[in-house]
Amino acid sequence: MEQVRNFSIIAHIDHGKSTLADRLIQHAGMVSAREFRDQLLDTMDIERERGITIKSQTISLPYKSKSGQVYELNLIDTPGHVDFSYEVSRALASCEGVLLLVDASQGVEAQTLANLYAAMEHDLTIIPVINKIDLPSADIDMAKEQIETELGLDSDQAVLCSAKEGLGIEDIFEAVVNRIPPPSGSAEKPLSALIFDAHYDSFRGIIASCRVFDGRVRQGDVIRFMSNGSTYRVEEVGVFRLTREARSELRAGEVGYIISGVKTLSDTRVGDTVTLDKNPIAAPLPGFRDVKPVVFSSIYPISSDDYPSLVDALEKYKLNDAALIYEKDSSVALGQGFRCGFLGLLHLEIVQERLEREFDQSIIMTVPSVQYRFTLNDDSVVVVDNPQYYPDPLKIKKSEEPYIKASVMIPERYMGAVMKLAMEKRGTNPRFNYPSPGRIEVIMDMPLSEVVFDFYDKLKTITQGYGSFDYEMIEYRQGELVKLDILVNGEKVDALSMIVHKERVREWGVQVCDRLKEEIPKHQFKIAIQGAVGGKIISRSTITPFRKDVTAKCYGGDISRKRKLLEKQKAGKKRMKMVGAVMIPQSAFVAVLKTNDE
Amino acid sequence: MNDTPRPGLYVHVPFCRSKCPYCDFYSVTTLEQIHSWVGALEREARHYSPRFAVFDTLYLGGGTPSLLSHEELSAVMETLDSHFTFADDTEITLEVNPDDVTPSKLSFYRELGINRLSLGVQSFHEDEVRFLGRRHTGARAEQALDLIRSAGFENVGIDLMYAFQGQSAARWIENLERALRFQPEHLSCYQMTLADGTPFGKLHAEGRLHSPGDEAESRFFSLTSRFLRDRGYLHYEVSNFARSPRHLSRHNGKYWNHTPYLGLGPAAHSFQDGVRWWNVRSVAEYRSRLVRGEMPVEEREALTPEQIGLETLFLGFRTHAGIDVNFFREMEGADAVLADLEKSNRVRLRDGRVRPTPEGLLVADRLPLLF
Question: At what angle do helices B34-48 and B70-83 cross, to 10 degrees?
Fold first, then answer.
């Protein structure tokens, strides 16, 4: 156990976590230059494209230190987005230390701080690492100063590196073995292992990634999942190299996997404790909780014939993403579908993209919503995450919506713009921290619905990308909530309805009508788009019929070009939904939320 | 369409004295390249010589074919004559710039067997001509037409352009009237297209040049169609009008019904046996490839039956010939769409063909998407 080190890399998005992980793997000699692909640990297409880690992965690296000692270093990769903060916390609970990455030109950001607090909560050894020192814009002194003042860490202890150029990698390994303590625990005690991740393998079933704190587990053992008491016989245990490598046992202090014939991911819950059925521990490891979705939206097939295929796709998808929850739903405009709960907007977008790309589904997602709470006149409480179920307004005694504590970190010069945005988004009770000269952390309370809508995009725009953002849920607060309905040629499109605060409803009504005007193509007839609250029209826009659609010239050189354009348009048409006689493009349902001003 | 329609031959003459700001056809102003282009054309013609049967149209387009000297044009015609066979009644069209028209040139064209001229007038109004960046004047265009008629050409087309910024309907009608004085056998009336990559396209993108908008464009289009039909012209394609059914452009018709055609010269397109290919958009590259013994083809595409079908549909909706009703027979839901289109006066069903009305031509690009 003395030769084992368990650690994670935590960083603000874009600060180079995946690049560093890849470099460590390469340096450990596990992969030849020829095999080396960028961002080895990020395997999904979407992760590569967006440069973020969604599913965490783990790898054991052999390392021979300068003192000649051979170590086994378990690098537990963590998802890099606030939507997945619970997964991050479980990964951190499995470590003794972290590398806290700071970009040499960007310095400390909101997520760096959030990550630091998370690591401190788990009492982890924190090694600050200043990355990207090769960049011309790198300012190592500034980064060090921020590490001292904003993070309260000793900047002399910071390791300098450039993951991209491979500089300082050896120093990082030495810091890991010398500064992060070996795991404690005893192999002789009853088994307690923490599941920090799980994924589905079509041949082997569920592969649970876990950290063993005490005891040992081997093939043939009967294990018990403590959250629900279910038991399984262990088929295989092992460690993560580039691929899985079976071992005879996993023992206290080690990180690896357990395969035990579990077929559904919902039985293997991240944060659960595994023990031995015949010799269980008294209490599970702390920290387990159900992950609760905060954003809700419905998924419908574009063509109702594709409903069975969507059912199948969701079942398969769910095997690999326990955080997605769904139940049947139906809409007048869109037919049969599913109401789904997501960890956040990014999670929602990922699910949408993966269903389309990996499962070849053509789907429409309705306007996302948070979970509202209504107390009715008879004092019963209803929780509504689907505008369709907005109660009869006459019966509502009190309406409440979820609030978050938002933390925004910005250079001082954007203070005015950010405060203006905060006002627009109903931010209240602002508090200010001045972590270092020229920088401000604004903390405020804000309705979650405003974040779901378009807060983050706007923040990025007004701060030219310098603003960073993090949030946590705090409580429900009272607010007057109304339902905004959208009518297309007089027909209510229930999938476009949304619950909004009364103060903001007019503004939203105008925005949605304007956006739909851009999203819906011209038809042969005039299309009226209206926003309505109750029966009252509060906004409208009109799409004029197309009058002319023909190109003047079509000779030898124009025909192929013209045909290709038509092929594209035809493909686009397949992604439209008929509402009455109006074709609404798939994109319109989510686009209504995105402002395109500024 | 005949049972075995003969193929058409197109020659792209990619040279202009100056570039017009709206034009997106490929051309260059480096006239010193003409000589090497003629030589390269010979090599290309030689390659295709055994691959095409008897042509019944030849179209010399550009660019500005009328800027070629007697010697250059003779060389081109000799090349074509020596490598290809033409039917007796071949329609031979030459695109002509009014500035280039002289009695001696015209009699030379007659000697070469050219029997159809297409005159790029664009407008008879001085200010419009200047706006369009052309060199001739309105009076010069009229003089050219007089000369063409006196030289004995009996198949003459006039190109006009309309629906551009600041143009009034009255002035457009005046242009049509001035053209009609010469009783042209053929009229091409093109709505201004602000194409990407042209100077006008750039001005448009910068917001410094505007199109009159859908509404005005559709009014101009209907006005043009009505005006010319009232005067006996046949509105037989989106932008093309013929004085009688005998005067349709035989050559252009081949593009619209998948008759084979061979295009020679840079950027020229060809079609044969379900394959379409096109040449590189560069005189220098065109020449150097041919000199190296390679074909100057930029890209080649073999059309799938679905692609042929889609082309049949969209090309058909652009011409009065329309589409054979049998084409729609296997298509699910087509009957209802066609019935709707007939009701809204976009198409007429006549002689077993679905034919677009002038109102249908106005939305020809939209119609294929309904099927």
Answer: 10
The SS3 assignment for A37 reads: coil
Listed residue (B116, B44, B4, B28) closest to B277, CA to CA: B44
Q: Tell the CATH superfamily of the A482-591 domain.
A: Elongation factor 4, C-terminal domain (3.30.70.2570)
Q: Is domain A4-179 given the CATH code 3.30.1380.10 in the classification?
A: no
Residue A224's beta-bridge partner residues?
A231, A275
Give the best residue of B310, B319, B361 to mutate against chain A (max A CB count within 10 A): B310
Torsion of Cα atoms, B11 then B13 then B14 then B19, to 10°: -130
Please count the CA atoms within 13 angstroms of the CA of A387 that sit on its side-chain side. Answer: 26
Max CA distance (Å), chain A: 84
Do residues A323 and A55 touch, judged by C-beta distance below 8 A? no
User: Which of these, A67, A57, A64, A4, lies nearest to A29 by C-alpha position?
Assistant: A64
Residue B368 three-state SS: helix
d(CA B328, CA B334): 6
Report the residue from A547, A551, A560 with minimal CB separation from B193: A551
What's the CATH number where B37 sits? 3.80.30.20
Residue A39 burial class via C-beta count within 10 angstroms: exposed 0-12, middle 13-18, buried 19 and up: middle
Res B85: pLDDT: 97
Task: Check whether residue B125 and residue B217 sit in a common domain.
Answer: yes
* Rounded Cα gap, residues B371 and B361, in angstroms: 16
Using CA atoms, how far apart are residues A109 and A28, in angstroms rounded to an integer? 30
Query: Using CA atoms, how far apart are residues A432 and A199, in angstroms rounded to an integer?
Result: 41
- Give contacts of B190 with chain A, Cβ < 8 Å: 552-553
- Phi, psi values for residue B305, rounded to 5°: -55, -35
The verdict on pTM exceeding 0.80 is no
Kindly report, residue by residue over A317-345, the tens digit of the pLDDT: 887 777 888 999 988 778 899 999 998 87
pLDDT band at A391 (very low <50, low <70, confident <90, very high): very high
Cβ atoms of residues A75 and A7 within 8 Å: yes
Q: How far apart are CA A44 and CA A42, in angstroms?
A: 6
Contact B239 A555 (CB under 8 A): no
B chain contacts of residue A562, beta-carbon cutoff 8 Å: 314, 365
- A83: amino acid identity, one letter: D
- Give the alpha-carbon dihedral of B246, B249, B252, B256, to 10 degrees: -40
Interface residue of A525, A526, A563 to substitute, partner B, most B CBs within 10 Å: A563
Q: What is the CATH number of domain A372-479?
A: 3.30.70.240
Tokens found for residue A115: 């990550």
Query: What value does the mean pLDDT of chain B take?
Result: 94
Residues B135 and B250 in one domain: yes
Range A301-365 has CATH code 3.40.50.2300: no
The pLDDT-based confidence of A204 (bands split at 50, 70, 90) is confident
DSSP, res A57: -
Please give the ipTM for the structure prediction: 0.93
Between strands A205-214 and A216-218, the pairing is unpaired
Q: Which amino acid is at B71?
A: E
Does 2.40.400.10 match the CATH number of domain A192-276?
A: no
Angle at the Cα of B163 from the Cα atoms of B245 and B13, rounded to 5 degrees? 65
Say whether residue B218 is in contact with chain A using an 8 A CB cutoff. yes
Whether the Cβ atoms of residue A418 and residue A432 lie closer than 8 Å to each other: no
B-chain residues near A554 (CB < 8 A): 238, 255-256, 315, 318
